[in-house]
Request: fold
Amino acid sequence: MTITPRLMPCRYGHDLSGYRLNDGVLLEDAFRPRRFTIRVDSGRFLPQKDAQHASRDSPRYGLRMVFDASPYPVPELWRPEQHSMVDSMGQFEITEFCAVQLEGASTAKAQLASLPAVDDADQFEDYSTLIDASTGAVPAKPIFVAIFSHTLHELNLGLFNESVPDRPLIDTIVPIADLRAEYENGKPAFLRQIDWLRDRGYHSIRRTRGDGDCFYRSTAFALIERLIHDRNQDESVPRTLSILKSTLPKLESVGFQSLVYEDFYDALVDLIKAVIEPDPTISTTKLTSLQLTEQFQKPEISNSIVVFLRLVTSAQIRLGFEDFGAFLLHPETGESMEPRLFCEHFVEATGKEADHVQMEALCRALQLNVDIAYLDGHSDSVNFIQLRYQKEAAPLALLYRPGHYDILVGPTP
Reply:
């Protein structure tokens, strides 16, 4: 059983019970609009006056959505100074759309037995108006409905994570074939992309819980596991510890007192030290991948590390206004934000998904190289977002699916 969410250009909280699609699907009372967002893949936004006439295939703009049928005003995201700010991860969001669940099983877990099939990933799949289920009348202000595959996929992932609250913070490694099996009944392009990764040596994944902290948790785990397998641990571990120590003055300079961060810092440092010096609280031997997994499954350790990395990211953004200031936008309104407010609300707060700014800031602060494989179902190959802040070091590898990060296990560096 799968679900078929639709996108509704309506305000969050608008009660759509009592309406149905003109294809006869009734909106039950339980299926009310749910706040949701659409992400643009790449390219630049058009000025608002040109948005109605944009083609989804326009190579000049990379615009993926056409709004000429929407009866509601499009959010103000087309200010001239923002034209070039859509990064390759597509972090602009349009919040006038809500996802509505139209059909499915009784529980989220059952609904997610398989991901739904979708067609062309870059266009609205279907337009329809809502009509009153009892009278057949069209509302005075028509609401157009569209199936949009990116949100379809993201909503399924969100429901999946919500339906499995006990999912480990960090799980054991599983073959990438397990991920492929989840998409067997879905869009073929996802299968081709997974096969593309497999054929290039990415044979497994390590899942993280989809709680909004998955980027930070995945990055921290991948960093320490890389040290465990590093043949030059006597050099790489001290260098990593030195880099971490160098972030402390940054934290102090933006107002974080040591009392706030020192326990979180110690949680990360202790694990890294255990790579070359046995920690009796963990084992009588040097840290292994299995022991690292067990430590990251403990909320008091895993979440402490996440908090520390969030504080480091916040400090880097606050101190790097010239680099990041123009990209600090409110994720719901698209309005520019001061670094302090942006960091307090969306970086330091746990459970908030990391955007491209945060990824850049963290990698810069920790001098990391990270490759992020973008699994989007758009093509037969996979685009990698490459973050480079250390010469010649092999990159960590993450797998990004809209709204979630896992660790990608690939060729030995």
